[in-house]
Amino acid sequence: MKHIIPFILLFMLMSSAWAQDSTDWITSSEHPHVQIKLDLVTTQADQQQLQALLKVRLESPWKTYWRAPGEGGIPPTAEWQTKSNISRVQWQWPAPQRYQVQGIETVGYQGTVAFPLTLTIENWQQPARLQGVVTMSSCTNICVLTDFPVDISFNPAQLAASEQRVFELQKALSQVPRLDHPAVVLERAEWSASQQQLQLELTHPQGWQQPDVLVDSLAMELADMTVAPPRLDIDGQRLLATFNISHWLGAAEVASYPIQITVLDEALAAELATTAQAVTQVTHAPAVSSSLGLMFAFALLGGLILNIMPCVLPVLGMKLQSVLLIPRERGLIRRQFLASALGIVLSFWLLALFIWGLKTSGSALGWGIQFQSPWFIGFMVLVTGLFTFNLAGLFEFRLPSSWQTWAAQRGDNSYLGHVVQGMFATLLATPCSAPFLGTAVSFAMAASNLQLWFIFTGLGLGMASPWLLVAALPSLAKLLPKPGRWMQITKVIFSLMLAATTLWLLTLLSNHLSAAMVWLLALSWLVLAALLVVRTYGKQGLLIAVASSFLVVAAVAVTASLTSAKWTSGPRPDHAWVGLNEAEISRAVSEGQVVFVDITADWCITCKANKIGVLLQQPVYQLLQDPQVVTMQGDWSQANDQVTQYLRKYQRYGVPFNRVYGPNAPAGIDLPVILTAEAVSAAIDQAAGRK
């Protein structure tokens, strides 16, 4: 008996070794930013094919590549030295994303990705072993090629099914483009050797939303071809994709070789195989120009609406008041307002240059992202504070006498101040979003560099349009009432609005500084304001200023309470938000729940308006409190890679962004930038399948 026990223990150890169903997380000490893991997944339904998941974890901002990596990069590969009892290993590719790094566009993955593998088993009852090396290329502004040794031994018949792994497998497979998808029809594929262009015409019966099309080939002759991002022309159900293709050896030849077409859109991932037909030249549809024209019109409207935002309106009011306070000739009024309009357009060009730089470096993009920087917020506090004091008459900006003489000899106190005034108005507008603005900005940030400048020029011209109108018709400025007491009253109102803006900007620093430090800065600013008021107007002036502030606050409070029945049902506690997690979205939807996603930021004025006016009001409040509704929030107040990638996934580049998921809408339903109770209620009902 004593001699038998060791043999029994040895047999048990060997059995447990063959029962291995996953590897540990494998990493390299030379490059710990990337890890891989191989999990086997069995359902016991098929005794010829065994599914597996090759999981990859990449630390931010590292990326790896798709099978066709774009203009740079190397796709992951696997060399299997041992495939005992395994006749074939098939690799499947989830739908990738496009990335730009230093002006080079690549195609791949960031964060976590799971590649489904299919292992063809020769004999289900016999032990099997898979051993080899997985080579993974990962890049930021540098690229590292890493080899990961993989060795897993198992007995297919002894593998136990795992619900968690089956769920992970199904999730990964759902992200793999479906072969010959019935909803996508390839009408034609044409190649022009003279133009070096490939053109595809695709139709989708439900219409296109935000499509992307990728082309690659398994043919050795096309292995080194470079496919530029396509030009997409959308006309209802019709999509025309035109690609510029090059080859490092010279002119490319695509006709007669098999190509793979990957089509991605909202809730759609399809893959088609075809051979392009040779033609003399491909035709170009005019759809891009019409859509670009529509986006330019949206940019004009969005920019125009920014003028009525509470932060911007005082600046326009200050400008109009300056015309009344000092009599000016028509020509001078025209030139001053043109200078301010130029300042606005210049600011939007600077924003376009800033965004172009971020696109080139591969950094996060977004409308208003400068408010994620404490240095920028501090600068804005300083600027708005100085403008507040100046508007209240507490001090004046004075040029040296020699500069004033120089400016006077040239006919106006120099136009630089008016240009700066326009630029200041633009800076104050950036935390605001408005109807049409989000659509135009999203289009611009996903478009070419030329289109980016074109759309931002439209935004600048739209915001500058009231200023340009006065410049064209200077008599409009003189239609205002004659100077009098009313101007002093509006001056106080405008200065209070700018003071409120300054204090609001100070609160944004709470994301970067301690609460005590923010309170100290706010009190210091108020004390400085009080000292300046006493110096300029005396103690009586201070009493009047304090009394006026209390009266304004009281008037707002009384007005709010008297009208509250029309816009609110009283204060309510905030929703029980959970952090943004796309895996949790999929899990909740699979369990029949509805998920309401709110991407917001403390500096986003429109986000606050949506929250107070819709999300905390009936009937939306009750809908979101339902136990079957998960309220999920992504905070973009500070730079957040997870939130940025989520926005990029849906081609959004600013906040607010709201999306509703559910059993009847697993891909999600977008909500408008300015929320309404009707829109939110309808989306929740649709996602839940109630209508």
UniProtKB/TrEMBL annotation:
The keyword ATP-binding does not apply. InterPro entries: Cyt_c_assmbl_TM_dom, DsbD_gamma, DsbDN, Thioredoxin-like_sf. The keyword NADP does not apply. It is found in: Membrane. Residues 43-146 form the Thiol:disulfide interchange protein DsbD N-terminal domain. Keywords: Cytochrome c-type biogenesis, Membrane, Signal, Transmembrane, Transmembrane helix. Residues 295-507 form the Cytochrome C biogenesis protein transmembrane domain. The chain crosses the membrane at residues 292-316, 337-356, 376-395, 415-438, 450-477, 489-510, 516-534, 541-562. Residues 1-19 form the signal peptide. GO terms for biological process: cell redox homeostasis; cytochrome complex assembly. GO terms for molecular function: protein-disulfide reductase activity. It is a multi-pass membrane protein. GO terms for cellular component: membrane. This is Suppressor for copper-sensitivity B. It comes from Pseudidiomarina maritima.
